Amino acid sequence: MEKVLVSACLLGRKVRYDGHAVSVSESILDQWRAEGRVISVCPEVDAGMSIPRAPAEIFAGDGYGVWAEAAAVVEASGSDVTDYFKKGAQLALALCQKHNIRVAVLTENSPSCGSSAIYDGSFTGRKIAGAGVTAALLRDNGIEVFSQYTIESANNVLHSKNR
Ligand code: SF4
After folding, report:
1. In this structure, are residues 53 and 74 in contact, taking their beta carbons and an 8 Å threshold?
2. pLDDT confidence bin for 23, thresholds 50/70/90
3. What would the DSSP string read from start to end of 58-115?
4. Using CA positions, which residue lies closest to atom 5 of ligand 1?
5. Which residue owns the Cα nearest ligand 1 atom 4?
6. Is the model's pLDDT at 146 over the cut of 70?
7. Nearest residue CA, atom 6 of ligand 1?
8. Number of separate domains in the chain
9. pLDDT computed for residue 84 by the predictor
10. Is the beta carbon of 113 within 6 A of some atom in ligand 1?
11. 6 pocket-lining for ligand 1 (C-beta < 6 Å)
12. How far is the CA of 157 from the centre of ligand 1 (A)?
């Protein structure tokens, strides 16, 4: 049974920076869980960050920029937490490699897990197109990354005969 990497906060784990989970009601997730496919990950907590923790955003780019050392992950106070985010991403990639995972469903808008959109680093609620630090690393390593809004597409890829 091919496994899928899923953000822990989408699975009801209260691991977000604010101590909450993300509420999703998605039958495909339930089905995957029943099939034993789900491998849960929270890159930020796995890297040693606390719950709750200060919100962080990517400044001057997105996750690809972070890996290119052109962007950084910062808290509103200005503290640079890039190293935590990179470590969390590397742990997530190691999990994928251990379980031969080719598909991930990660939480949209997060500086780690966002796959289409992230906050712009101004802490004003503005979003830009881009990927978080973990999503970028996984994609660079051939893993297809989806969000809670595109779970059906992830399920289609998972069941595609040509894989
Ligand atoms: S790092 Fe990912 S899994 Fe962890 S709380 Fe943020 S969005 Fe959820």
Report:
1. no
2. confident
3. EESS-HHHHHTTS-EEEETT--B-HHHHHHHHHHHHHHHHHTT--EEE--TB-TTT-S
4. 16
5. 42
6. yes
7. 16
8. 1
9. 98
10. yes
11. no
12. 23
The model's pLDDT over 41-83, given as tens digits with 9 standing for 90+, comes to 999 999 999 999 999 999 999 999 999 999 999 999 999 999 9
The Cα–Cα gap between 52 and 27 comes to: 28
pLDDT value, residue 163: 59
Would the CB of 137 count as within 6 Å of ligand 1?
Answer: no
The residue segments making up the domain with residue 54 are 4-161
CA distance 51 to 122: 22
C-alpha 110 – ligand 1 centre gap (Å):
7
pTM, two decimal places: 0.97
Q: How far is CA 153 from CA 12, 88, 150, 163, in A?
A: 21, 25, 5, 14
